[in-house]
Amino acid sequence: MVQTVTEPGKYFDGHGLFLRVDKTGGKFWVQRIVINGKRCELGLGSLDFVTLANARIAAYENRRLARSGGDPLADRRQAQAVMTFEEAAREVHRINLPTWKNPKHGDQFINTLATYAFPTLGNTKASDITTADVLEVLQPIWLTKAETARRVKQRIGTVMKWCMTKGWRKDNPVDAVDNGLPKRVAKKQRRKSLPYPEVADCLKTIAGTSAGLSTKLCFELLVLTCVRSNEAREARWAEIDLKAKVWEIPAERMKMARPHRIPLSDRAVAVVERAKGLDDDLVFPGTKKGKTLSDATLLKLVRENGYEVDIHGFRTSFRTWAQEKTTFPREVAEAALAHLSGDDTERAYARSDLFEKRRKMMDAWSKYLAQDSAKVVRIG
């Protein structure tokens, strides 16, 4: 009957349900219902898309909810307020952007999702995303782009957790996705390091190149102090006390988010002295005023001069030298690398940063690198 009726009007069924036929011939399901003592009408959709059977089920559920004190109208509004995955991801990105140490991390967060997740999940309501949907995103890149896939998975999970706090979900579909992904054979790539007897020759070679003064000085200080690349490249004058021969890197620039005091050897002080006048803020500025040296600058410097090693590997060179050529305790060498030693209980009691012992160690490292006077070349 509902398919054949054409006369404009209202055709009633049970639970307040009726079919409204417009003068234009349009047919729509409507339910007249009392919600919290107030009479209202709920649209349940066009007859073209909602059958009589489905309209009856919806009307029954609405009435049952209203009689138990619920509000089907509010539930509908809440469902309409749920963001799509792309909208939620962009909101999570906006909220967290001020907390990332480097704006590049924020760009990577949204760009990887835009590339790999949005084409599949972007237009889907956050509440409707399933583990199968996440699996569809990850499977094509899980084995071929392992690190990218790991980050995409982590970032989808971050967005889903935020959606849970909004009340749009009760679960995180990323939690079970591993069960559907093939197992990867872990290939741990160790950073290439230079044998410690060859480090002095490397310093001599770099000193004699035509590279910029800032780059060469930054590299030498990195080797002398055993810091990470970003810690050296982003060094500020405000962090260094040349008179006390101390460089104190604040927590926000350290990997472990703990401040790190570094004793400067005489050679390290001389390197920093040579950098005076290059910039008022940065010790080792890049080619553009006020900008740090790029991440690839130091690596390019050593690779172009015949050393197929990683910048981080010079920390390994130092650590191996300390182990094989000195009697300094292990915890002193680990502290020099800003590593945490021992378990939580041990660290709770051992709160010293072993600064004076580390000063002796860094002086010994500097002297080792300069033990052959022929290898000492003035930079610049």
Please explain how this structure is put together.
The termini are far apart. The C terminus is likely disordered. The protein is built from 15 helices and seven strands. A four-stranded antiparallel sheet has the order 1-2-3-4, with helices on one face. It folds into three domains: 73 residues, Integrase, DNA-binding domain (Double Stranded RNA Binding Domain, 2-Layer Sandwich), CATH 3.30.160; 96 residues, DNA polymerase, domain 1 (Orthogonal Bundle), CATH 1.10.150; 180 residues, Orthogonal Bundle (hpI Integrase, Chain A), CATH 1.10.443.10. The radius of gyration is 33 Å and the shape is elongated. The chain has 380 residues and is of the alpha+beta class.
- The CATH homologous superfamily of the largest domain is named Intergrase catalytic core
CATH third-level topology of the largest domain: hpI Integrase, Chain A
Question: What's the number of extended β-strand segments?
Answer: 7
Shape: elongated
Number of domains: 3
* β-sheet strand percentage: 5-15%
The main pleated sheet reads as:
4 strands, antiparallel
The second-level CATH architecture of the largest domain is: Orthogonal Bundle
pLDDT < 50 stretches: 345-351, 372-380
Residue-averaged pLDDT, rounded?
87
